[in-house]
Amino acid sequence: MNGDEARPPATNAVRAPGPADGGPGPARPRLTVVNGLAGTAQTGTAQPGVVQPGVVQPGVARTDATACAADLAHVAEAIRECSVHATEALAAITRSPGIAAMRTHVAAQSALVRALTHGKGLGCSFAGGTFSGVVSQAAGVAGRRGLAVRVMATSARVRLTGLAHRHPEMRDDPLLRALVDAVNTGSVPRFAREMWRLHRARGFGGIISTIAPMYGEIQTLWALLDGNPFNDATAWRLASGRDVPSADPLTGLSTKAIMFWDRGRGVSREVDPGPELAAALPRRGSIIDFLTALRLLGRGSRVIVQTVRGPDGAERFVLLMPGMGTEIRSDDTPQDVVGAFTTTLRSESSTTNALLDAIGKAGIPEGAEIALIGHSLGGSAVMNLAQDAAFCRRHTVTHAIALGAPIDFKKPADPRTWVASIVHHRDIVATMDGQGTDTCFDLHPDWYTVSFGQPEDTFPSCHGIRHYLAALEHDLLIERAHIDRKLVPYRGVVTRSRVFQLHRDVPEPHGHPFLTAPGSPSTADLPVRGHDTDAIVAFFAAEARAVERALAGEEVGALVRLAASRWVPVALTVIAHRDSTIGPYAEARLAVCVHDPWRGRHPLAAWADPVRRPDLRWSGQQVLGCTVTTHAAQTTAHDAWGLAPEIGPVAFARSGRRRLALAIGGANGTTLTGRLGPGTPVPSLGRVWYGRSGNADVVRSVAEFRGGARAHPLPWLRLRAGPGDDPVTRRLREIGVRDARPMLCLAAFNCRSRMDDGARLSIN
Questions:
Q1: Distance (Å, whole) CA 205 – CA 211
Q2: Is residue 754 included in any domain, yes or no?
Q3: What is the CA radius of gyration of the chain?
Q4: Is the pLDDT of residue 32 over 80?
Q5: Does 238 lie in the same domain as 282?
Q6: Sign of CA dihedral 194, 200, 204, 205
Q7: What average pLDDT does the segment 567-584 reach?
Q8: Nearest-angstrom CA–CA distance, 509 and 513
């Protein structure tokens, strides 16, 4: 029988490479596990009870230890459900009013309390509410664990025992045995001591390689027994195989603290692959050719979209995405450790969005068939695409192949998508979602899953794409042949390869932040200089959703928020130029504070910008509406600064340096009146404005006001927006700022001003 034809995707088989595979033969056995079954690699004639290479073994089931561990996990979940019901019943009885009710239910209360607290009952197993959770966590800190936790810990121990039998080299390792014993005790000092011993003996890479096959079980058992209340929820998620972790299993640090740094919209731009890469890319379609292209890409945050003409003459598409880089956090690329973490635990990330952008720019027609292939972070990212229902409605995802990627909790939106997962059992990256390569849960019985490796393989080399490529070329011949059979529609000629560079956010233009070079068609004398200018900037709080509706998807950058709330600062700027190079005029601008348009920024970064020179600032203000008083000012604002101003009345009246009376748009427009209140001097009153020109490019302009600038943190002013139709008044009503007091005012009177020509930028 030809084994290459005999095994379907779900066949459980173990084989050893022979001389025909390019290996040295049976003296160097390699363990291969398909769909979770491990066995002893053998060669020679068939014997009863021995799994032979390429031979279908009917009735082969999971090992006894694996099945027992899964059953114990289900029992633990049932016990926890009983605890929830018992806690709810106790709470309902306690809430019953009246002395008679208390006397009637006292026996039931006593029985429920004994059941929930006694060591021979459910242990300390209050569950199902906030107060119950606090009591249960406090009991865990004190060392009192409920019955459900003890049973789940037993399940984890059984999994470790099963893994030790599957991997004898781990069972015979004294350092690893000592580490597992320390985990069983839940003692932090002992665990730290054994980790230090392992580190001194083998180094960091040795630690990873040693514990990788059982890392999921070790971290699960530790989180269940360590007495840390902050990782209890994660411990249960991992132990039950229900979901991705919500916190670090070892420390309890919330995963949100890491995913918080993956800020960015995720964009891409097509780049020239260069003559060397273009010449080296394979011209045929097979799993080896696709992985070779991934190897050639390296870790430069690039992806390839290939067009393949299949054997039937139809054009199909292949997306190839490599793994993550070595940086912890990068402002430029989403393929860093933070991006990998977010892409694994969440379906939406800057990496996923950048891939969607690349596919959109590749011009793949709707309904076209596409295969998604990724390594490491790339595997998680392509699975995010496969489980995106909107993406699957636009394109037909026929295949999703991941190598060394943590994808256990991802599921394609289209049930017809064929999924293959290839993992080295010492590749710890594949366990980032909390499930090891030999998990006891059969999460995806319809997937084609291959786990392979040798005891002498070490991390990080076993995680590299070169290692996976070499394994499929020389050792996993049957698995490679089966994948190629599934890829038959793509086994044709590659007619086009397009390379895209991924970015966490729109990349900075060359020369940033010095972007004030003339670039407008304006005929005005630029920069516009004022020799006697009054300027006032009043900041108000507006609801973020209202501002987003007003912008209608035309945001230049992310909105700056007030203390991570739903409120954003908006600025009303009124300027009176009594003597300028384009004549006397006044203007009013309503703008919303935004982060820079080129990369995701820390939410507090914009608040540090005011201490910088205006031309060095990242953040700025995107103009929502503008009113000017002269045609010359209107032409200059449109041509030089990318604004769409309207001509209307703007009155700027003040009494001394304290009392103001501003009016925009006439009698039915906007007024800002009152006293500025106490103030403090500031170096300058510089502004960075963003506007949209007619061709949708962004125009960045800088204005500086020198002389007598002051900040007024407690202004006694009041703004009222009337029913007028001028741009400023209309926009104020749209964002809900009708009758409000400013949070802060910046003012400069009788100062000099300079308003530079805008720099046109393409950020799409």
A1: 10
A2: yes
A3: 33
A4: no
A5: no
A6: negative
A7: 93
A8: 8
Six token digits for residue 12: 């459980």
- 545 and 452 within one domain: no
Last residue in a domain, options 259, 285, 317:
259
Whichever domain contains 725, its CATH number is: 2.40.400
Is the residue at 593 inside a domain? yes
Residues, the chain = 764
Q: Identify whether the C-beta of residue 437 lies closer than 8 Å to the C-beta of residue 451.
A: yes
* Residues 281, 247 within the same domain: no
Domain check: are 479 and 352 in the same one? Answer: yes
Q: How many domains does the chain have?
A: 3
28-42, 155-169, 202-216, 310-324: range with highest mean pLDDT: 310-324
Report the alpha-carbon angle 145-149-150, nearest 5.
80
In this prediction the pTM is 0.63
Last residue of a domain, one of 208, 224, 259: 259
pLDDT tens digits for range 191-249: 788 888 888 888 777 777 777 777 777 777 777 777 677 777 777 777 777 777 767 66
99 and 244 within one domain: yes
Long-range contacts of 205-209 (CB under 8 A, 24+ apart): 205/458, 205/459, 205/460, 206/458, 208/428, 208/459, 208/460, 209/426, 209/457, 209/458, 209/459, 209/462
- Structure-token pair, residue 559: 């909105």
Cα(719)–Cα(726) distance, rounded to whole angstroms? Answer: 15
| One domain, residues 220 and 276 | no
Domain extent at residue 605:
530-761
- What is the average pLDDT across 176-201? 79
Establish if 518 belongs to a structural domain. no
Angle CA 444–448–451, to nearest 5: 95
Same domain, 278 and 423: yes
The verdict on 398 and 536 lying in the same domain is no
Question: Which pLDDT band, with edges at 50, 70 and 90, does 124 fall under?
Answer: low
User: What are 350-407's pLDDT values in tens digits?
Assistant: 888 888 989 989 889 988 999 999 998 888 889 999 999 999 999 999 999 999 888 8
Q: Is the per-residue pLDDT at 4 higher than 60? A: no
